[in-house]
Amino acid sequence: MKLPAMHEVQAQMGEWVLRSGAFSVVPKALARASGAVALADATLRNQPAPIAPTPAWCIATIGAARLLRYESVPGVPPRDPILLCPSLINRLYILDLKADISTVQQLRNDGHAVYGIDWGNPGPAEHGVGFEGFTLRLRSLLQRACEDAGVGKMHVLGHCLGGTLATALAAVDDAHMQSLINLTVPLHFGDDSMLSKWIRAPFFDAQLVVDVVGHVPPWLTQPAFQVLKPMGQASKVLRLLQSLDKPQFLEFFRCLETWINDNVSIPDAFFVDLNERLYRKNDLAGGRLTMPSIAAAPVHFENVRIPVMTIAAQEDHIVPVASAVPPHARFPHAGNRLEVLPGGHIGAVVGGLARKRLWPALLEFMQQHALPAAPSQPAKKPVRKRKTSTVRSS
Amino acid sequence: MNNESSKSSAGHTQKQRKPQDTLPEELLEKMVGALEGPLNSVTERLLSSRVVVWPLSAAVNVGLRGARAVQRRMPGHKATHTQEHKQ
Is B48's CB within 8 Å of A25's CB? Predict the structure, then answer.
């Protein structure tokens, strides 16, 4: 039997010692402790996270909803304008989360005039406003944005339920829409996800919820969304622990947590429509959803005649691929595009892959389906000189 | 083409290999993996099973009915918009 040479034994032992972390555990622990202190300090001091960095002006309001126009980048040749339509229950600034993680900034840097809808926290003006009512509001705000930009049509990017509204509008009235970009948008509600199963539970009554609480507040919806990924909170804590020594990650974490905890209430009638007509009866995908104040015929995906880009996230636990992707095949335009990105519901928008895949694909699609002629006149001066560095408050 | 690229990358493995994680880091990563993977899917399956969903929805329903009844008996109670519509 041949004994290993001394230098081999030494090398092996050295590797074991390094692997055990004997030399790196303490410095890493100190760096993480320092990160934890910095995070705690910022939290205890209520230091605001650097969210929504792009300056924006409110140019119109309907009830709690505000139409914002983002400041354009000087010196960049102008391209088609775009309207961002986020979910009703989340804030718009997920698309403008922080300086280097911002869909808005990408669009602006490419020369697009960017408009966004902040649906705001529903109040008395939103009582009884259902799916159809919000689709009408979207139509009015889109029209207003087109007037402001001096164009007849503009691209619309719908995120989550905002995209559901935009798709419904595109099916019945696409007069002001150049193209539609659906970013993790639920369209087929008969999927097998946990959220669908819960909503379709036999004794769950959305009307009863609304009768008791009115507009459904975040303290009711937020825990429900957290339970959809049962181990999500625990794994989040461990991921944070892993990255406490990275200041950039901590800043991103604070911004994202601010957004996650900045939910708004779900308007009462919209909540009932969402549960009863969309989730339980699957009326939208089934072609049974009617919006008589906009069009006599029910909403059919086959009637969406503008180009549609569908972006879904593989590990999305809120809008699974089974909800976002199958309806895409029913949109008739030949220039449609489908992208299924790795990541979750939020990760697809603000994760590293957003930079690598989402934004380039988005800009390419908009270029492919650009308006026939670029707007000749520059964006108008703000109507209301109310500059909002953040779009959180409503 | 693919073979070529894999060969060339194999040739540089020694140079390009990332330093291996220490054991505590690897353990932490495995814990996260387990939480986000199998543990999450098992809990998800459990929480979306009828055994949980049916009684839970029944309990929520009873609780909400109780809350509504109490609300209606409270002085100065105003029906919500949707209640007004029903009436």
Answer: no
